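Page 47, continued from p. 46.
Same chain as before, 347 aa.
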Amino acid sequence: MIKWGVVGAGGIAYRRTIPEGILRAKNSKLVAVQDLNSKIAKKIGSEFDVRVYETTTELFADKNIDVIYIATPVYLHQKQCIEAANQNKHVFCEKILALNEKECGEIIEACNNNSVKLGVGYMMRFHPIHTAIKKTIQENTLGKIIMARAQLSCWYPKIESAWRQHKNMGGGGSLADMGSHCMDLLEFIFDSKVVEVFCRTGNILHDYEVEDTSIVTCRFENNAFAVIDNCFNIPDNSSQNFLEIYGSSGSILCKKTIGQDSGGTAELFIEQHRKEYNSAQKRKSKKSFSITGDSSVNIYKSEIEYFSNCIEGNVEPEISGELGLHQVKIIEACYKSSRTKKVVPVR
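Result:
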């Protein structure tokens, strides 16, 4: 049983990762929590009947803890990941891994030097529909992959205390916060890396210092294209969080599989006859079937069990520090593209 401690126990940790992930995972146990807000920490500790620490130093020193889950604002990740690794704790960090490439490299180096595992919280890879879509593509059901669209948007008005609305705290706005998930998900589904981007960002509605709107066009190693749109200014129920994938033999259209939930719907469309040109474009198509996954799968439970399995089996996680670094490189390339209004390669 892998024993977990949590830094930044409020927010996503309290809403999702602790109750749906750590507490429900078969191979994991919540041992202790810490939060900058001591009242919130005490409330969570009491609710889940675990130890509460005033400081991260005390939490990291607990010899009964195997892994630290870091769910704090991005600007704290580098310091906290390194401190945890130096106390010989495995580290599971929410995305984005750090504010920039340099900080990511320092985190990776600390974990390597201390021989501890490093994972990053891209939980949408574990969605049962997304794993089913990946299998469908691997089976060549869609033929040659041509393009995709991934959308993740929400309503996020100006809040003075919101760290995501300050670039030096969150690394960026809707692009860094939500676009990173979309790009990682498409790389996972395509089994292909983003190699270049063209990006535009702006503040269409909210006047905080990070962008409330972003749109990115990507090219992948397999030469497929994608459009990724992320907004902090669209009402929650008005954003369907679409995932669309188009190939030479058909398409997959999803609603609400992108996000924090483990539900949503997906349909696969296959073209019956596609070799000859049809000038009327009235060719009959066959809607093959709805793509479903195991409805019992929870994305937070799955990511926690996966990382605990990596620790128990002493194997490197696929969702690694290097992958976290790669996503930060993509984000930095996107912001450079937005500034220069040019296509930028991802190094």
